[in-house]
Amino acid sequence: MNTFTALLLAAALASPLAATAATAHDHGGGAETHQLQLNAGRKWGTDAPLRKAMTAIHGSVTQILPAAHAGKATQADYDAFVNAINQQVAYMVENCKLPPEADAQLHIIVADLMAGAEAAQGKQGENKRAAGVVQVAKASNAYGRYFDHSGWKAVKLPH
To answer: Quick one: signal sequence residues (predicted)?
Structure first.
């Protein structure tokens, strides 16, 4: 992402609309409802920084998801999760160099990742933390459906 794109993304994520993107703990619907599209029927290309960041996000979400879903994740668990997501998104924004069309699609996923992290942080109430983790999982799964990341495996959602 170029500097201008990163600034636009930061501004968009700071808006109240980004905060309303978090979903309830219902496992239905998900990140893909934001107009994600394939590239003429094919997945969008990726680059090494994007794959690295998304692999780390995948690892973070699969680690906390069982405890969050069971209501056993601690504040420290959520804090570590949110920190990891924020670090990887920052790395992605700083280092990812996708063509503009792919970049625009990635912004949809990044917005969902950030909204999920915000909910997991407790900014939408303590009872929305687990839903935030689920939203990050769904955004990760949407990434796998729309972006070409060799060996990507969907996050298994409870239920």
So the answer is: 1-21
